[in-house]
Amino acid sequence: MTISTEDRVLPTEHGDVFTRRWRIRHSRRTPIVLMHDSLGCVELWRDFPERLAVATERDVIAYDRLGFGRSAAHPGGWSNSFIRDEAERYFPPVRHALDIEHFIALGHSVGGIMAASLAAHHPGNCRALITIAALAFVEDRTLQGIRATQAAFAEPGQVERLRKYHGAKAEWILWAWIDTWLSDSYANWTIEESAPGFACPLLAIHGRDDEYGSLDHLHRVAALGSGGVQKLPLDGCQHVPHRERPETVLDTVACFLQEQGEGRMQSINRLSRA
């Protein structure tokens, strides 16, 4: 199998967006679009996108959201609606610039919520959804996990780890995440506000020992799907299943997409627009 990597910087009305595409030669299958987590970027997916492309025989596309990685600074107006804003404002210019009509959305953590929001707000374009450690509401474990990470980043040299990938944007990224999730105004947030529902097939993956969210999040995400739902709770796994249990995640995603098939996903896609 021949795979190549293509980096592009896309000028958008909101600022330049860095993208990377792992391209499978001669593949005509619907590509997978990756949505990174709250502190993430293209580089922090590490080798997962390439392995995912090989396992599924599909192109995989990742981009640094505005404010992250090699993309421009966030244009401002950060609010509690940042997840929905990504689906409605910032993703469409990226999709159009890359000439992607249909896609499969896969996201990790907050990126999982964003992937669900893409499925909800682009039902005519999103053919399947895969969430990894997606959060569905704010629970005590979520707050405790964020406070523990906040304390860890207070140690000398820890913020430099973020600067390696985000440059001068590192502090903004860290505090946008912490301040949003720990704020009183975000305490009653639920995934239904960002992704009220979706008709495409769903695979939801969650570690039983996830330090940011119990399995209640897995079930809450799954309850939003109406196009066929598969759930994978993973024993002995925390918040990053694709790094902790990569073979299991890759095999499950590949089997899930093979079971759906291009024809079935297209059929569900048409029904969702009816």
From TrEMBL:
Residues 31-152 form the AB hydrolase-1 domain. GO terms for cellular component: membrane. Gene3D superfamilies: alpha/beta hydrolase (3.40.50.1820). Pfam families: Abhydrolase_1. It comes from the Bacteria. InterPro entries: AB_hydrolase_1, AB_hydrolase_fold, AB_hydrolase_sf. Keywords: Hydrolase. GO terms for molecular function: hydrolase activity. SUPFAM superfamilies: alpha/beta-Hydrolases. Signal peptide: none annotated. The keyword Transcription does not apply. This is Alpha/beta hydrolase.
